[in-house]
Amino acid sequence: MFKTNFSAMAFIAMLAISPTSILAAECEKADEFEIGATTVTLQNDALFFTSHMHADADGSARAYHSKYLRGPHDKTKPKNVLVQDTICNGASYYRRGKKIPGIATAKMCAKHYGRECVGEERYNLYLKRCLNLVGDIKKAQKNNWRKPKIDWFGVAHKNVDGRVVPCIHKTGVLKDYFVSQTSLPNEPTADACSGKRYMNSETIPFIVLPRIKKTKKSPVELRCEFRKHGVKKGDIVAVYSKKYQKLVFAIYADNGPGNKLGEGSLNLGWELRGTQNDEKTDASSAVVTGEVRYLVFPGSATGAPYSFAGIQKSGQQLLEEWGDLETLLETQH
């Protein structure tokens, strides 16, 4: 019920500010825009940008482990146990009601210190945050996930009796691994705690695009600069590595930091690098250095389920309609 001093005019004005109008005011549709230090341009109805490629293990069955929380860096982890990433890349903790990521990007570091910081200083902040997160997760495990509060953005979870409980494999070869999630499901009808529901980073080539902070008024994940051009989850992307001279087609399937471009699945990195099976280990084995060219085809999503072969077939057709590989290699901002 509204308070009696809430005027009718104010109420009418509030109604006029719908979520749609709020989103529309975020940005204008532009043929060129900046995401962090990366320029994105419209090229023949497709969005083009160059970057590198960090690896995103989200969606992989072996991305995060509930016992070896620091992943490849966990000194208690047996050598024969593969954990592809640290949970610090998949969750956040809270202090005084404020959510704090388990990582420290350059922007986060600058905000923390009030100035630019790099090297050892940035690593020390990352280590502090990561260890704080790991400590809180261990406490939450002992408290049957009642407290402290954890934000599981990279881990599938359910609300159980007021508790946010992360999904953990209980049996089999994946016992004690967290169920890692992606923004776009591959089997939407599967249970939230089923690994089959999400894009498998080891088998599906996909890229990550920047998200905005979700609120009740603005529940959309993708930044408006891409939304204005009709980009949606599942859209096809041509990805070319200059270093490895390899073209692979992918889909947009996950969201990441709002000011960053240049992140893809383990499968995408391995395919670009030509990585052999015995070399496919943690996320570092899928990082692609040097120039990587991305061409996003808005409105090209075919719908789940997605497969490697299906993505390559659809991507090849789209690239031929747009131009060809030579045109992609010659494209400039």
CATH homologous superfamily heading of the largest domain: RlpA-like domain
- The stretches of 5 or more residues where confidence is low (pLDDT under 50) are 1-25
How many structural units, i.e. domains? Answer: 2
Helix-strand pattern: HHEEEEEHHEEEEHEEEHEHH
How much helical structure, as a percent, in the residues? 10-25%
Structural class: alpha+beta
What's the level 1 CATH class of the largest domain?
Mainly Beta
Number of strands: 13
CATH topology of the largest domain: Barwin-like endoglucanases
Strand content: 15-25%
- Quickly count the helices: 8
Radius of gyration: 21 Å
Secondary structure layout:
Blueprint: H1 8-16, H2 19-24, E1 32-35, E2 38-43, E3 46-56, E4 92-95, E5 98-101, H3 106-113, H4 119-142, E6 150-151, E7 157-160, E8 163-166, E9 206-210, H5 224-227, E10 236-241, E11 246-256, E12 263-265, H6 266-273, E13 288-296, H7 308-322, H8 325-330
Parallel strand pairs: 3-12, 9-11
Antiparallel strand pairs: 1-2, 2-3, 3-13, 4-5, 4-6, 7-8, 10-11, 10-13
